[in-house]
Amino acid sequence: MIYKYCGHSGVQLPILSLGLWHNFGSVDDFSVATQMVVKAFDAGIVHFDLANNYGPVPGSAESNFGRILKNELASHRDEMFISSKAGHDMWPGVYGDGSSRKNLIASCNQSLKRCGLEYFDIFYSHRYDGVTPVEETMQALIDIVRQGKALYAGISKYPPHLQQKCYDILKEAKVPCLLSQYRSSMLDPAAKNKNFQIAADNGSGIICFSPLAQGLLTGKYDNGIPEGSRAARSTGFLQASQVTPERVEAVKKLALIAKRRGQSIAQMALAWILDDERVTSCIIGTSSVSQLEDNIGTLNNLSFSEEERMEINSIISNPAIWFE
User: Fold this and answer.
1) For all residues of the chain together, what is the average pLDDT?
2) How distant is the alpha carbon of residue 319 from its chain centre?
3) Which of 103, 171, 174, 324 is 20 to 30 A distant from 224 in Cα terms?
């Protein structure tokens, strides 16, 4: 495994981190989840990314991770970097959602209990809710760190016009933002174009999620929408309407480049994210040990020639294939 420092800090992360957004909830196979976490750790993936609402049901990914940690990896806690977040809908009532101090602190306490932890290595504000003043949200993160419930603070998905303000508030309190988390892929350049440089200029590490565009950058949808896939569901983060002919055609062209490189398209897509020197780590989401192993195989070829960069950019520079 390769490790990189997070911005202007002494913390190193593996360039591939394991996310528990999907496939680790109460509806999933616990034995497979256990195998993936243990395999990841054995491969040097020591960063595990959680959130209070990951499941389904919400909270169950943290509970399952806590069980896996207790049963399999309890003696290795200090070798691991464990994160969680709060800000999306979690429990009924007006306090179970959003970016308020009330929600963040209650969520952090609940998440620690579910995971069986004394502290998180980093706790994030999962989103800007459009209402809560960022001063209130950042102060909640500062207090969570000062209370010893997390070692570091982070922000996720904050818009550019508020990003700098978050960094300024945290820096003034001497609790600098360790990591900024954003969605990014070959088909989703918005954060790379708008957020990455602000983070880098402020000494924050950058960690990316959804690097495979919810499975589009695996070739899974090259010949239609498979039954049981994410796009086949009526709800979810990839809708059938997003599997457009333009995107499918772009993915097929990218796959030809990946084949020449001796990689799967998924491996090349991950390598592409990591090719940006500002990026600290990329969060992978897997449904099986074999898929995890394929993603880890990305490490075998991380470099791009200038010719490859130009060819790839000519394919992905088309706004028609970008996600909003």
Assistant:
1) 93
2) 23
3) 324
